[in-house]
Amino acid sequence: MAHPGDSPVPYMQRTRDWYLALGYGNPYRYSHYAKVPFTALTKPLADSTVALLTTAAPFQPDKGPQGPGAPYNAAAKFYEPYAGDTAMDHDLRISHVGIDRRHTSMEDSNCWFPLPLMREFVRQGRIGRLARHFHGVPTNRSQRHTLEVDIPRIVQRCKEDGADVAVLVPNCPICHQTLSLTARALEEAGIPTVVMGCAKDIVEYVGVPRFLFSDFPLGNAAGRPHDAASRRETLELALRVLESAPAARTTVQSPLVWSADWEWKLDYSNVERVSPEELARLRAENDRAKETAKQLREKIPASA
Fold it and tell me: Where is this region: Disordered (predicted)?
């Protein structure tokens, strides 16, 4: 009999049950596609321009707690794609999304934003060069807006940067859907991709060409915190998947484990581990976060 720790966290079912328990009668429906695009690499990675896509947000000092141990912070969300110079260091945080706050510290941004390590891989000749910009992709719950507004901008910007391939690193459940949809669009535009993620069920349900699955808590798709060896191995595995995948829907699971104790898998959005009183508090907190997010979206110009 399989050990319960061998099974990935069922994020789709957990989030459905969670929102029903909070009193919302219309559980979120994730995108799903039967057909998956696939573009083969046309040259070695050592000769390629590599784009990095993230769902992390730039630190905003005036937007409340965003550091280690920060609670969910809707005020720190972004709703328009942004870009940053890959030659520079950046302070990106993940307080604005639903990552695993109990089992990861949010102390080491290298776990969700591997740009420094990718620059090192360039210096070592593993990849040819980085695209001029990395790209931040909004985690908009509206699939229509993501598909019709955000993703076309990202694809165009990757093309303008001359990207040959792209590495996509999501964080929360919706982040995994968003970057899976983005990977599909990039492949259709002729740019091979690999998704580095922790929510196996969501990525495979959407349907992507290449996926490196790390069985880690959400927010650690690029490796374990303060563990340079695990981050290096994780990125190298992702690049190998990018190079060697024979066809669409190729999933490779990292051999790395989070810890000897698999109990962490039982905690994320698990209604069986939360009291009714705590659920009521979380419902009120979620309602406030939704209102904050609504106000942020209303500030976006109509032409954006």
Answer: 284-304
Residue 7 lies in a domain: no
Helix axes 115-123, 228-244, angle to 10 degrees: 70
Q: Please write the tens of the pLDDT for every residue from 209-249.
A: 999 999 999 999 999 999 999 999 999 999 999 999 999 99
DSSP β-bridge partners for residue 83: 135
Asked if residue 285 is part of any domain, the answer here is yes
Q: What is the pLDDT of residues 116-133, one digit of tens each?
A: 999 999 999 999 999 999
Domain count of the chain? 1
Q: Is residue 24 part of a domain?
A: no
Output helix, strand, coil percentages for the chain, rounded to the nearest 5.
Answer: 40, 10, 45
Cα(203)–Cα(205) distance, integer angstroms: 5
Q: For residue 227, is it within any domain?
A: yes
Q: Can you give the residue range of the structural domain that contains 187?
A: 32-298
| CB-CB contact of 232 with 197 (8 Å) | no
